[in-house]
Amino acid sequence: MKMSTVSGLMWVEKYRPKRLEDMVDQREVVESLTHLLSRPAEMPHLLFSGPPGNGKTTAALCIARQIFGEGWREFTLELNASDERGINIVRSKVKTFSRFRGMSTELPFRLIILDEADMMTSEAQTALRRIMEQSAERTRFCLICNYSSRIISPIQSRCAIFKFRPLPREDFESYLSRICEKEEVAFDEDALEEIYRISRGDLRKGLNILQSSASVRGSVTAEAVRDLAGVGLVAGVREVLESAVSGNYIEARRRLFEYMGTLGLSGTDVIRFMMTALEEMDRLDSSIVDVLAEYDFRLLEGANEDIQLSALLAKLTAAFQGS
Ligand SMILES: Nc1ncnc2c1ncn2[C@@H]1O[C@H](COP(=O)(O)OP(=O)(O)OP(=O)(O)O)[C@@H](O)[C@H]1O
Ligand SMILES: [Mg+2]
Question: How far is the CA of 302 from the centre of ligand 1 (A)?
């Protein structure tokens, strides 16, 4: 979700590289992919693995752009394996998508980007393997995961595997400093170091902390960064919960997604901070803990984050009105 901040656009999207050679680091991956792209018709299925926020989805989108050109969206299907838990949905989408043949590409196939492939059960992966075989003539898959070891071996053996490294500190920090310069935001070197430490090399998280520090505090200092990433996190959740306590569900939900978007938080992070915030607000009783535990578990099982968090907030809002 987009939110208006300093520039009106989230920096993670604004600065997402459009070409492989513009990516930060990942030299080996970029070199081999560039080599593959010199003969796109012979491109195999791809499997990208590595820690969060280091360029996997970005690279997949660069490939789509580079092989299909301008109208790449028409030839690219982006699916999220954990959103679409039912493999049947994946199957029918792939089927519909690969059946349709556009006129404006010379390539005989379409690209299907399947994010979070390692969230699929092994049964679903077995079904996916069949889908890949059945649609082989007209599709190439780019599977994305955090751990390639969680992908069943018959799929691994059908793909060219690319391991994305955690971004080195120097590249990470110098990239952030270039963005500060472009955005004309003042920054301290030690603040960038702090961002690297907190985000553990996850550039999405890093850019989001950078942007919120710039937009909330007007500059990027180590203190602002620590504040926004630590204490500020609980305070942010607290605002969300206060709207819920006052019975304003719509407002609570809006704040929640805005807050998650700016800081790049995951659903499980949010539930953890909710626990602390509710304790501070003296609202933590056994029934509330039960609710948090239930939703934490659902997220862990891979349920849709937007839906689950919306439902969690609705439940909390109702519980507060009853107490
Ligand atoms: N190597 C990189 N070069 C340039 N920008 C990057 C790189 N990695 C991440 N980014 C920035 O971080 C954002 C998130 O990156 P991306 O979506 O590619 O991460 P990911 O590896 O797919 O993460 P996840 O595993 O969480 O899906 C991008 O929009 C981009 O701005
Ligand atoms: Mg991704």
Answer: 21
**DSSP string spanning 194-254?**
HHHHHHTT-HHHHHHHHHHHHHHHSSB-HHHHHHHHTHHHHHHHHHHHHHHHTT-HHHHHH
Who has greater pLDDT, 259 or 111?
A: 111
Pocket of ligand 1 (CB under 6 A): 12-13, 15-17, 23-26, 52-58, 146, 203-204, 207
Instruction: Supply the mean pLDDT for the chain.
Output: 88
- pLDDT (tens digit per residue) in 99-115: 766 555 677 788 999 99
pLDDT at 81: 82
Is residue 121 classed as helix, strand or coil in its secondary structure?
Answer: coil
Measure the CA–CA gap between 174 and 153, rounded to whole angstroms. Answer: 38
Give residue-wise pLDDT tens across range 123-159.
889 999 999 998 888 889 999 999 999 999 999 999 9
Ligand nearest to the CA of 78: 2
Tokens standing for residue 290: 């039960």
User: Are 162 and 46 in contact, with CB atoms under 8 Å apart?
Assistant: yes
User: Could you tell me the domains of the chain?
Assistant: 26-163 (3.40.50.300), 231-322 (1.20.272.10)
Angle in degrees, CA 51, 1, 12, rounded to 5: 50
pLDDT at residue 264 greater than cutoff 80: no
Work out which ligand 1 atom sits closest to the CA atom of 115: 27
CA 276 – CA 282 distance, rounded (Å) = 10
Angstrom distance (rounded) from CA 232 to CA 230: 5
Q: Side chain identity at 199, as an amino acid letter?
A: S
Ligand that comes closest to the CA of residue 56: 1
83 pLDDT band, cuts 50/70/90, is: low
Task: Please list, residue by residue across 45-71, b when 16 or more beta carbons sit within 10 angstroms of its beta carbon and e when fewer do.
Answer: bbbbbbebbbbbbbbbbbbbbbbbeee
- How far away, in angstroms, is 57 Cα from ligand 1 center? 6
pTM for the structure as a whole: 0.73
